[in-house]
Amino acid sequence: MSEALTFEHFDQAWTEKVLGKRGKKGIDAYLGIVATEFSAGRLVAGFDVTDEIVTMIGNIHGGCISALVDHVLGVVMYPVMPPRSWAATTEFKINLLAPVTNGRVEATAQIISMSKRLAVIRIDVENIVAAEEEGGEARRRLVAVAQGTSTIVAPRS
Amino acid sequence: MSEALTFEHFDQAWTEKVLGKRGKKGIDAYLGIVATEFSAGRLVAGFDVTDEIVTMIGNIHGGCISALVDHVLGVVMYPVMPPRSWAATTEFKINLLAPVTNGRVEATAQIISMSKRLAVIRIDVENIVAAEEEGGEARRRLVAVAQGTSTIVAPRS
Amino acid sequence: MSEALTFEHFDQAWTEKVLGKRGKKGIDAYLGIVATEFSAGRLVAGFDVTDEIVTMIGNIHGGCISALVDHVLGVVMYPVMPPRSWAATTEFKINLLAPVTNGRVEATAQIISMSKRLAVIRIDVENIVAAEEEGGEARRRLVAVAQGTSTIVAPRS
Amino acid sequence: MSEALTFEHFDQAWTEKVLGKRGKKGIDAYLGIVATEFSAGRLVAGFDVTDEIVTMIGNIHGGCISALVDHVLGVVMYPVMPPRSWAATTEFKINLLAPVTNGRVEATAQIISMSKRLAVIRIDVENIVAAEEEGGEARRRLVAVAQGTSTIVAPRS
Question: Cβ contacts (< 8 Å) between C123 and chain D: which residues?
Fold first, then answer.
């Protein structure tokens, strides 16, 4: 095992304001993305699958999952950056592994490398289906994996 | 220059049904994605930047652009596959180059390789701002580039 | 945690032939890549940093690391595919995290999703430096992370 | 068409020293990579397929192509950066499209976006086979496409 990554900053007060809150507008509000766990370098956030986002084929549009990945890539950075810094998602790559038809979609973002200018983050996206939704059997499946880079922009002096 | 890619199939009637139409629900309808040009292996589709998708910082959420990329990756495949085939976006990678604040966001998807089972597609995303929106100067800028893989699933016999 | 991935096939005899062996020619032989651990869906393989692969700047060329990633992406597939199948690396994405100047470079490849046609693999690349090489302090650092897709080609009947 | 990218710097003298030269050691020398064309933001470089790099299956190892991509990603940056800057390949993504068995492998790298800190580059890799090698028919085929990010490190003052 490589040395663990440690973080100089962690703005817990900021995470407490964000946890459990749904945005008021924008694509994250449309999807209903809510952060449910936050620690230094790690974020869990997701949304419930509603009829609105299921396509005619019966699955959710892949764009819902990639928008979630894009969202957590940015949000996971805020509490660990120096105050007033700004995080820009530079790039990411996503593999879509399985279709999602119901239940909840949850992304776990983990910062795996961080310098003054760049951070690299891995994201696991899971589909969680409760027993009653599937006729008796609860499920938790990996439905997408992603890896991305965030650029840290220092505050103007 | 490498040999040009040719396509055995092209369902023009399908493209004519899709062109100019906005979806009725789902993330593509939320964003207002509309296809405006279609030829064999090439698709142009985009959406207008509305107040709804602009964040507090004044830019659109990156998730809107990655959802557009995910969308065109699938749609560009349909007219060139054998009838009743199904295209699944396997993976893609996106670089976000510049923030978008207004105007229109337009993706051009081009299939650059296609076998029986897999296709590779490159996507350019541009931001087009009319002269009156920018105080006198029209602009067309590259704001994201992407590269992805689509898996072609043959119809069940 | 999502359900663990299980593998229908695992050709242990094949892995025993491969473990500890250096290729006779080709880029893997040039780098001196040797597999040191093999289990179903997981492979550890690496090479020692020699003067030959260190550039004028004092680091190894990034191409050595990407060639290692490409190599393990293929090799990890062989023992878990149906006999006589063939694995083609379809694509991968790599983030280079830190320069490597000495010691050993080791990649750990883990299959995280596998269907009849496609597998998705994550790779961690670490730099391991023994205490005597660094003047007293042994180190194990993550120097690259990758994510890729392998296409499984069934044997011709 | 988006506005063309322009470059403030272009060190033509440096490119003239590099063109046509094979490295003395390292993975680029092993492969025999030579730059054949250089202009601001664009580089063509490649290697000849030799018996040494062809595997038992009869194709070249994918690692040769990914090492070439990694190589051009760095080299294309040097003449367009401010003097004494340093380019670090941050990440790239590659799709391998077709096997290569003989002839020449040539990568064309094009910078498509460049700021003070980051550049995004697209790479086309082609396989060029002369008529006499293929029994009468010359060929030029796209065998890989890649997209990557280079970080520009300013010189220490």
Answer: none
Q: Which residue of A has its CA nearest to B86?
A: A57
pTM: 0.96
Answer whether B70 touches A (CB < 8 Å).
yes
DSSP C71-140: HHHHHTTGGGSPTT-EEEEEEEEEEE-S---SSEEEEEEEEEEE-SSEEEEEEEEEEEE-GGGGTS--EE
pLDDT by residue, tens only, chain B of 157 residues: 677 799 999 999 999 999 999 999 999 999 999 999 999 999 999 999 999 999 888 999 999 999 999 999 999 999 999 999 999 999 999 999 999 999 999 999 999 999 999 999 999 999 999 987 766 678 999 999 999 999 999 887 6
Neighbours of D113 (CB within 10 A): 21
Q: Which fold has domain D12-153?
A: Thiol Ester Dehydrase; Chain A (3.10.129)
Which of A139, A142, A147 lies closest to C93 in CB terms?
A147
> Which two three-digit tokens encode residue D102?
């003989």
Pick the closest to residue A105 from A66, A57, A149, A58 (CA basis).
A66
What ipTM does this complex have? 0.94
- Using a 10 angstrom Cβ sphere, with 0-12 exposed, 13-18 middle and 19 or more buried, the burial of residue C53 is buried
